[in-house]
Amino acid sequence: MNITRRQVLDDLRFLKVLARQYPTIQSASTEIINLQAILNLPKGTEHFMSDLHGEYEAFLHIMGNASGAIREKVDLLYQNTLSQAQRAALATLIYYPEQKLKEVKEETPQEELGEWYRLTLGRLVEVCRLVASKYTRSKVRKALPPDFEYIIDELLHTTYDERNKGRYYENIIATIIEIERGDAFIAALCGTIKRLVVDRLHIVGDIYDRGPRADIVMDSLMAHHCVDIQWGNHDVLWMGAAAGSRTCIANVLNNSITYNNLEVVENGYGISLRPLALFAAETYGGRDMAAFLPKGEATRGYSPKDIHRVACMHKAIAVIQFKLEGQIILRNPGFLMGERMLLHKIDRERGTVRLDGRNVPLKDTDFPTVDPADPYALSEEEARVMEQLKFSFLQSEKLQRHVRFLYAKGGLYKCFNDNLLLHGCVPLREDGSFLPFSCEGEELAGRAFLDYAEGVARQGYYAQPHSPQRQQGKDYLWYLWCGKNSPLFGRERIATFERLLCDDERTWEEPKNPYYLLYERPDICEKILREFGLGGPGSHIVNGHVPVRTKDGENPVKAGGKLIVIDGGFCQAYQPKTGIAGYTLIYNSYGLRIVSHSPFEGVKEAIRQDRDILSTTVLTQATEHRIQVGETDVGQEIRENIDGLRKLLAAYRMGLIKQDHSH
Ligand SMILES: O=P(O)(O)OC[C@H]1O[C@](O)(COP(=O)(O)O)[C@@H](O)[C@@H]1O
Ligand SMILES: [Mn+2]
After folding, report:
1. Where exactly are the transmembrane stretches of this chain (predicted)?
2. Where does ligand 1 bind, in terms of residues with CB under 6 Å?
3. Is-contact 12 656, C-beta < 8 A?
4. CA-CA distance, 331 to 491, in Å (whole number)?
5. Which atom of ligand 1 has the smallest separation from the CA of 545?
6. Which of 52, 230, 234 to mutate to test the pocket of ligand 1 (most atoms within 8 A of CB)?
């Protein structure tokens, strides 16, 4: 379509800015041709994972093997020429180049090494060429490690059997080996392969808590070339702790100590728990800590003395947590959580707590720091401990960096390629209508409420320190973690108090929001998708948060394919429930695929035995045609860029903007 003078003049300011980047007709035209070409390429591959819960070894392996996709490419290329063991060894090399190279050099006789390098480099180039084939050359070049860009680009585009280039290709490989650059090249090729196989990674919440080292998972995500994160309830809890919310800090430590997982706090983030340990020993040492022992598995290998010490810390921080939560609830009547204040309902004489009109027996009523006259006030020592812990959380450079990354690359939800990515739920009433929330005097529901909640969550970290907005934001991060009908928590209440102190398991109930019943219905899912401007045949809701009981035959796909839950128990503590070790949802140009992962035996096993995580496809939803970039959100962006460049071309040709040939 030809562009009128009017259209160019309307956009002249924007076009002058664009002209700085494309100063001539030639440069603007080249970019248009390049962008137009990309529109016809097959859609990039997206991987979705959720509920990683600190399981860094399994996660790093899954990142390395691209949820099984790399092994598929190796099998595709070499099923007729390499044995199963040789293919497994090649795949392991791609996953762990440094470690596998070390092992190969230890175990391969010197005189055979040269041949091993020649064969291996050739095969890695072929695997790289296969995974690069769906992209333009310029996109592949941008993905290459700068030091090796020229040579790898040459190797990728020089087919071995070309008569006049056969020697040329062989010479490059021979020279690499001769000047002992084989290892560096192998690492560069493996990195490129991993980078090209997954175009975009979505983490749909719950990176933190339970498993050993969420900080290592975060470091790996920060190194990923293209990742976005939809916050989970455990993530916003750590964001609140990093923002300096003492209530979030108390909850973070309660969760970590429950699993005896102090490593992520002390070693990962360099936060000393010494103040808490000393206070706990002083206040609770020698008393009965039966109700506060770390969870089963987490006590293996610890002496009774150590376990008692951790249990004292657990009780100390839990009491502080219940007090501070009472204060937040009093500060925020809009949370409608008054019935969750339980400390003043404890009857020490009878050893019970008043719950839903019943006197429920407590396992422990020994609370020396709780003043019955003012049960939610911290004692002097408790206040001092929390100030010291708050200072440590604020001072942890790595934690602050990780949380800034969660804010920059994350959000409460994400709409991408017709899918709605959301860790928890869109709170609903029983009748399927969007549950309204009072937000500073306004009733908000559905998307408007989620947008409001995300804004307040950002205030918690970015509003002026000590301002009311900052305090509101920090309180809100705690609300999103465990608040009544929070979109990231999706339950009536969190029963931490009851699960710690009451034997009566009826009190442990955490009734789910009606969303978790209604989300089996396609019409409800369609209504939710439309609320976010999505909907139609290729549109899905992707949730994490609730472990799919695969073992009991539960299907991750619900509502006739409109909704997919991908929490497959990546977290070891939940694997007995789900029977698998997590899911990855794969969305490529052929459609959707869900793979479930087998439990991971650890990196050493993987390298020594060439053991992989067996990822089996449990469901596919093929699209009737191969999806092109042009049909995706990225394609939409590219079309807008092309439109701008065509207007710029017109502006040059109409003499409305001068070309600048000086570059
Ligand atoms: O978002 P998630 O992973 O379900 O975690 C929140 C849930 O975990 C719990 O704290 C229980 O945790 P654990 O299973 O680790 O004991 C529940 O009270 C709460 O509903
Ligand atoms: Mn969750």
Report:
1. none
2. 206, 210, 233-234, 491, 494-496, 510, 545
3. yes
4. 21
5. 1
6. 234
Angle (nearest 5°) at CA 313 between 308 and 317: 150
Burial class (CB within 10 angstroms; exposed 0-12, middle 13-18, buried 19+) of 413: buried
Nearest bound ligand to the CA of residue 494 = 1
How much is the pTM? 0.94
Q: What is the mean pLDDT of residues 312-337?
A: 97
pLDDT one-digit tens code per residue, 300-320? 888 999 999 999 999 999 999
User: Which ligand 1 atom is at minimum distance from the Cα of 234?
Assistant: 1
> Where in the chain are the domains?
5-41+631-654, 64-197, 233-506
Residue nearest to atom 11 of ligand 1 (CA): 496
Q: At what angle do helices 214-223 and 397-409 cross, to 10 degrees?
A: 50
Question: Per-residue b/e over 330-346, b at no fewer than 16 CB within 10 Å?
Answer: eebeebebeebbbbeeb
pLDDT digits (tens, 9 = 90+) for 593-631: 999 998 888 888 888 888 888 888 877 788 889 999 999
CA proximity to 501, closest of 346, 378, 341: 346
Per-residue tokens: 365: 């009523």
ipTM: 0.94
Centre of ligand 1 to C-alpha 470, Å, is 27
Distance CA 252, CA 264 (A): 11
Q: CA-CA distance, 195 to 224, in Å (whole number)?
A: 8
Secondary structure (3-state) at 188: helix
Q: Residue 298 has which token pair?
A: 């987490």
For atom 8 of ligand 1, the residue with the nearest CA is 494
Nearest bound ligand to CA 510?
A: 1
Per DSSP, the residues of 97-138 read HHHHHHHHHHHS-HHHHHHHHHHHHHHHHHHHHHHHTTS-HH
> Which residue in 216, 191, 56 sits closest to 131, CA to CA?
191
Closest residue to atom 4 of ligand 1, CA basis: 545
